[in-house]
Amino acid sequence: WLARMRGSRIPLDVVACNIQLKAHERMGELVAAGSLLTQMMREADGLPPPDACSYNTVIAAMAHTQPTKAEALLTTMLDTGLAATEISFTSVIVAYAKAGRPKEAGKWLQ
């Protein structure tokens, strides 16, 4: 989808990238979602930097099966200076709770 936009010389903005991230999430394409977010973080290929919505989409996707990766993304998000939201924290807390790892979940409750 983003390639078609590039081919049509339509500028890629964060909204278009977030839509693509959400599509990857809904199709269960965690690797593709993570890859796109990484490209956005590097501003590779003219992509815009990610916003809180970008991070939250991938954090929520990773939280279903990979709580450690979800937490790493939340930490990266905070390190970049973006403000985390309730979605950011809740996704990580619930991920660890479902994985039977209450200690890690509790860390984010404080």
UniProtKB/TrEMBL annotation:
At the top level, the lineage of the source is Eukaryota
State a single Pfam family of this protein.
PPR
Q: Which UniProt keywords apply?
A: Repeat
Q: What is this protein called?
A: Pentacotripeptide-repeat region of PRORP domain-containing protein
Annotated source species: Phaeocystis antarctica
